[in-house]
Design a protein that fits this description.
six-stranded mixed beta sheet; 8 helices; globular
Length: 391
């Protein structure tokens, strides 16, 4: 378990890279810090690792306090029982694969026979046992990444920290390596904190995602909840592809937790994604591309149905990425290949009310304690597209 409370890291000049961050990584889970460059995610990770001295707050790893600003507790990195994989992998080029992995054990009281057994077990875990005698410069990028992971695990750490570990790999290799990392993490049951700017990577690999912006956590929850019901406009636009529609004259709808208003394309009914926020006259409404239904014939439903014209339809292999002009509002949608849409086609556009979500426009930090891990995976209303939308 990792518990962070009120973490602050201020650099010279008064720049706060991390500004009072709170979150927990439950034992045995994988939590990802996700955000754009400069949001504070890597600095937070380095503070937990002991590679940066925080300005304030507390950090606990397992049952030990490794940093407490008030009590002046600051354990060095080698006392924190962590394994870390760096973005650059930090592989020693003059060493063999075996010696790179064995390095963390060399200055311990571990005997040679045990070192050999543990190194070979770690290499077996990442599928590199046969390459133990090979020199590091003769490895591919994916193999170097596996060596770095084996080295992080060989000392049997309490927690595993990974800083953008796949950013130097090509797209296809990234996809396979993130799956391998997830499988190893689950097999070992090791508590893991993962840092990335890649939204797809975060959604695929995580038990919990913490979205960061400006040194704060602005959303925290399961990947499905973060994607389907983001709490702020920033999160909605950062994760996945989204239409954000301005709506005015907002008022409560007859059905529970629903609102009505006027969008550029006409009247719109949408879900009140933040019942704790007062209903204002104006709102921003999120509509994911895959939740838009397109049809040649007008749907029987009355709510959120508008006439539109296809502006462009880009064929991407598995689906068409479409731009639809609807009453002066341009909306993007994903349609399956069977739709065979092209520019100039007239279509009916329908957005199920439960799939249109009111967003909070502010980026206020959120509490990300242990209770956040239990966020419900609120699923959007299931729909059956008439022309078929890509999943």
């Amino acid at each position: 378990m990792i518990r962070v409370r009120g973490l602050v890291k201020e650099f010279p000049g008064g720049v706060r890279a991390v500004d009072g961050v709170d979150f927990e990584v439950p034992k045995g889970s994988l939590v990802t810090l996700l955000g754009p460059s400069g949001c504070g995610k890597t600095t937070s990770l380095r503070c937990i690792a002991g590679l940066e001295d925080p300005t304030g707050g507390t950090i606990e790893i397992g049952d030990r306090v490794v940093f407490d600003a008030a009590k002046k507790v600051l354990l060095p990195p080698n006392k924190r029982r962590i394994g870390m994989v760096f973005q650059s992998y930090a592989i020693w080029p003059h060493m063999t694969v075996f010696d790179n992995v064995a390095y963390p054990l060399r200055n311990t009281k571990t005997n040679k026979a045990e070192i050999k057994d543990r190194v070979m077990a770690s290499l077996e875990l990442v599928g590199l046992a046969a390459l133990a005698p090979r020199r590091a410069p003769n490895l591919s990028g994916g193999q170097q990444q596996r060596v770095a992971l084996a080295r992080a695990l060989v000392a049997e750490p309490e927690v595993l920290l990974l800083d953008e570990p796949l950013s130097n790999l090509d797209a296809k290799l990234r996809e396979s390596m993130r799956q391998e990392i997830r499988e190893i993490q689950q097999r070992l049951g090791i508590t893991t904190l993962y840092v990335t700017h890649d939204q797809v990577e975060a959604l695929a690999i995580s038990d919990i995602v913490a979205v960061m912006s400006g040194g704060n956590i602005v959303d925290f929850g399961s990947p499905q909840r973060i994607y389907e019901a983001p709490r702020t406009r920033f999160v909605a636009e950062f994760i996945g592809l989204a239409n954000v529609v301005p709506v005015s004259k907002v008022a409560a709808a007859p059905s529970d937790d629903m609102l009505r208003g006027v969008a550029p394309m006409g009247p719109m009914t949408f879900a009140n994604n933040d019942t704790g926020q007062a209903v204002a006259d104006e709102a921003s409404v999120l509509v994911r591309l895959e939740d838009i239904e397109l049809s040649r014939e007008r749907p029987a439903d009355q709510d959120n149905v508008w006439r539109g014209t296809v502006v462009s339809a880009l064929f991407l292999g598995t689906h068409f990425d479409c731009v639809i002009e609807v009453g002066g509002q341009r909306m993007r949608a994903h349609a399956q290949r069977a739709a065979k849409l092209k520019a100039g086609d007239e279509v009916w556009v329908r957005v199920p009310a439960g799939c249109a979500l009111r967003l909070r426009d502010d980026g206020a930090p959120v509490a990300a304690g242990s209770s956040a891990a239990a966020d419900a995976d609120d699923s959007a209303t299931a729909t059956t597209p008439l022309l078929g939308l890509a999943p």
